[in-house]
Design goal:
Length: about 325
């Protein structure tokens, strides 16, 4: 990772575009967030887009908590007994369990019941911004240790009291899978961006993939003036987690989607966004989510695990750890 400029310009529609750096770029909505694919060979953009869309469709119908017909919904509904799982579901569950173990439970896939009790019971686009004035009921997080996964037999089991939600890891995994599929289909360098979770595959453009890390509150909605820091991503993944992208009110309380599994409540740490680079997008996503939940302990945890990261506090100060460039803010040029 190095600093660079100018940043890659983002396409605003599903139609193919050629950005200022001569890269093919397209953007659309998927998995409840923005999806973007960039390729080093513009002529290969259509093939890359098709590959990415196929992966995201498979992820949605397999791992979505908000689709009644998804495999995950079926697994949650019939919890309590061993159930067969598809290869994708098995992989996603293994990733989630490993992430929970590795983070000491700060990233826990059994937060589903707590999220539902706080009102996050449907895709966020359909979630009312405000709700009843009755007190919020906090559901306990049963804990990732209850999850059983038989990798060899491709089956899984967890108690009926647990509701699995893979939001903390599935988007990063989807970015990794989509980037690999797009690179194979397009036979060129590819960058996939799913709402701030990015995965690169193949040879990058000269100088790397230029990525704007904004100082805005919401990582899914870049600032209009393009202000922030620009880095060059050469390979692997980058993820930004924040507490402003999915917020709502219930019982007069401001809530958000990043829960502390130890309390079942939205985390109240000092960071509004954390950006992390790693070998894969799912690893970066796990680390950035863990850092938000870890709060004041996040910088030490990130450094201990060898991550490069940029942490932005609620009141604006920025702290960089590892190899993250601690340079002055830059502004995107048209």
């Amino acid at each position: 990772m190095t600093t660079t400029s100018p940043p890659v310009l983002q396409a605003e529609a599903e139609d193919a575009e050629l950005d200022a750096a001569g890269l093919g770029s397209a953007r659309w909505r998927s998995l409840g967030t923005s999806a973007q694919v960039l390729v080093t060979e513009p002529a290969a953009l259509a093939d890359a887009m098709e590959a990415v869309k196929d992966v995201l469709e498979d992820v949605d119908k397999t791992l979505s908590r908000f689709r009644s017909d998804s495999e995950l919904s079926r697994l949650n509904h019939d919890a309590g007994a061993w159930q067969s799982v598809s290869p994708l579901a098995a992989r996603a569950l293994r990733v989630a369990i490993d992430a929970a173990k590795w983070t000491g439970g700060l990233v826990d896939p059994t937060v589903g019941s707590a999220l539902i009790s706080l009102g996050y019971d449907r895709t966020f686009l359909l979630l009312p911004a405000d709700g009843p004035t009755t007190p919020v009921v906090v559901a306990p997080v049963i804990g990732w240790q209850c999850l059983e996964l038989d990798d060899a037999a491709q089956r899984a089991r967890w108690p009926q009291a647990a509701v699995v939600d893979l939001g903390a890891t599935a988007k990063g995994l989807a970015a990794d899978l989509a980037a690999a599929a797009a690179q194979e289909a397009a036979d060129c360098g590819v960058l996939v961006n799913l709402g701030g979770d990015m995965a690169a595959a193949g040879a990058p453009p000269a100088g790397g993939w230029s990525v704007l890390i904004g100082d805005q509150v919401d990582p899914e909605r870049p600032a209009d003036d393009g202000s922030g820091h620009v880095i060059a991503l050469l390979s692997g993944g980058l993820a930004t987690s924040g507490i402003a992208a999915r917020r709502w009110r219930r019982g007069g309380n401001e809530l958000h989607h990043l829960l502390d599994p130890r309390t079942g409540r939205p985390t109240t740490g000092p960071w509004r966004t954390v950006s992390v680079t790693a070998a894969t997008a799912v690893l970066a996503n796990t680390a950035s989510t863990c850092a938000i939940v870890a709060g004041a302990d996040a910088p030490a945890w990130l450094e201990e695990h060898g991550f490069s990261a940029r942490l932005v506090a609620h009141d604006g100060p920025v702290r960089c750890v590892g190899g993250w460039p601690n340079d002055a803010p830059v502004t995107a040029q048209p």
